[in-house]
């Protein structure tokens, strides 16, 4: 019984990834182009999300500042989920809704990118960060699921919405991780061309 349940997780995950690939590939390509253009112009990427999405935000920033699969110079990415003094001060003095938007206001500039992760598409603090980013003439790449929620309605034509066609949070997060790796790979290929193994 336990083995069957485990197998069902693997099978469902694989099926969702295959279903998502064709739907999301054009949007992921747009995100890569948007991010590469920003980085090439000396801009940076700010990243935010809650819970598992916070871990994904940190993962993405680490891949850019460190490396993905090849040696290269560090790329400017900042996870807005990591400074506990900022997070707790803003949550305490203002509200939890403001923990990311205050940082976008502090660090974001026109031409920067906000990578916003929310499996539901309805995270209030991620929505506030998007509002702050759009006010600062930043572009937004949003990773969502469950139909995109309110976030899907906030984005402009200049932004990119990568909405996983699934409703189960774990499956959405798994596709978000593959998407993050696709973006990291795409940025590296745009910088250097070819394949890492060439």
Automatic annotation (TrEMBL):
<protein>
    <recommendedName>
        <fullName>Phosphoheptose isomerase</fullName>
        <ecNumber>5.3.1.28</ecNumber>
    </recommendedName>
</protein>
<feature type="binding site">
    <location>
        <begin position="118"/>
        <end position="120"/>
    </location>
    <ligand>
        <name>substrate</name>
    </ligand>
</feature>
<feature type="binding site">
    <location>
        <begin position="92"/>
        <end position="93"/>
    </location>
    <ligand>
        <name>substrate</name>
    </ligand>
</feature>
<feature type="binding site">
    <location>
        <position position="123"/>
    </location>
    <ligand>
        <name>substrate</name>
    </ligand>
</feature>
<feature type="binding site">
    <location>
        <position position="63"/>
    </location>
    <ligand>
        <name>substrate</name>
    </ligand>
</feature>
<dbReference type="InterPro" id="IPR050099">
    <property type="entry name" value="SIS_GmhA/DiaA_subfam"/>
</dbReference>
<comment type="similarity">
    <text>Belongs to the SIS family. GmhA subfamily.</text>
</comment>
<feature type="binding site">
    <location>
        <position position="173"/>
    </location>
    <ligand>
        <name>Zn(2+)</name>
    </ligand>
</feature>
<keyword id="KW-0862">Zinc</keyword>
<dbReference type="GO" id="GO:0016853">
    <property type="term" value="F:isomerase activity"/>
</dbReference>
<comment type="function">
    <text>Catalyzes the isomerization of sedoheptulose 7-phosphate in D-glycero-D-manno-heptose 7-phosphate.</text>
</comment>
<dbReference type="InterPro" id="IPR004515">
    <property type="entry name" value="Phosphoheptose_Isoase"/>
</dbReference>
<keyword id="KW-0963">Cytoplasm</keyword>
<comment type="subunit">
    <text>Homotetramer.</text>
</comment>
<feature type="binding site">
    <location>
        <position position="181"/>
    </location>
    <ligand>
        <name>Zn(2+)</name>
    </ligand>
</feature>
<dbReference type="InterPro" id="IPR046348">
    <property type="entry name" value="SIS_dom_sf"/>
</dbReference>
<comment type="pathway">
    <text>Carbohydrate biosynthesis; D-glycero-D-manno-heptose 7-phosphate biosynthesis; D-glycero-alpha-D-manno-heptose 7-phosphate and D-glycero-beta-D-manno-heptose 7-phosphate from sedoheptulose 7-phosphate: step 1/1.</text>
</comment>
<keyword id="KW-0413">Isomerase</keyword>
<dbReference type="InterPro" id="IPR001347">
    <property type="entry name" value="SIS_dom"/>
</dbReference>
<dbReference type="InterPro" id="IPR035461">
    <property type="entry name" value="GmhA/DiaA"/>
</dbReference>
<feature type="binding site">
    <location>
        <position position="173"/>
    </location>
    <ligand>
        <name>substrate</name>
    </ligand>
</feature>
<feature type="binding site">
    <location>
        <begin position="50"/>
        <end position="52"/>
    </location>
    <ligand>
        <name>substrate</name>
    </ligand>
</feature>
<feature type="binding site">
    <location>
        <position position="63"/>
    </location>
    <ligand>
        <name>Zn(2+)</name>
    </ligand>
</feature>
<keyword id="KW-0119">Carbohydrate metabolism</keyword>
<feature type="binding site">
    <location>
        <position position="59"/>
    </location>
    <ligand>
        <name>Zn(2+)</name>
    </ligand>
</feature>
<keyword id="KW-0479">Metal-binding</keyword>
<feature type="domain" description="SIS">
    <location>
        <begin position="35"/>
        <end position="197"/>
    </location>
</feature>
<dbReference type="Pfam" id="PF13580">
    <property type="entry name" value="SIS_2"/>
</dbReference>
């Amino acid at each position: 019984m336990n083995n069957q349940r485990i197998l069902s997780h693997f099978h469902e995950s694989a099926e969702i990834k295959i279903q998502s690939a064709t739907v999301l590939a054009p949007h992921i390509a747009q995100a890569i182009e948007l991010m590469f253009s920003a980085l090439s112009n000396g801009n940076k990427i700010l990243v935010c999300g809650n819970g598992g999405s916070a871990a994904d935000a940190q993962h993405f920033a680490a891949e850019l500042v460190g490396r993905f699969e090849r040696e290269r110079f560090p790329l400017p990415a900042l996870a807005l989920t990591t400074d506990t003094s900022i997070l707790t001060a803003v949550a305490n003095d203002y509200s939890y809704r403001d923990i990311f938007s205050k940082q976008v206001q502090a660090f974001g500039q026109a031409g920067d990118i906000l990578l916003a992760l929310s499996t539901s598409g309805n995270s209030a603090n991620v929505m506030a960060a998007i509002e702050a980013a759009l006010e600062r003439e930043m572009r937004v790449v949003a990773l969502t699921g469950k139909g995109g929620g309110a976030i899907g309605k906030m984005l402009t034509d200049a932004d990119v919405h990568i909405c996983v066609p699934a409703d189960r949070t774990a499956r959405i997060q798994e596709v978000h991780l593959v998407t993050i790796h696709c973006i990291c790979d795409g940025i590296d290929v745009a910088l250097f061309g070819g394949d890492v193994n060439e």
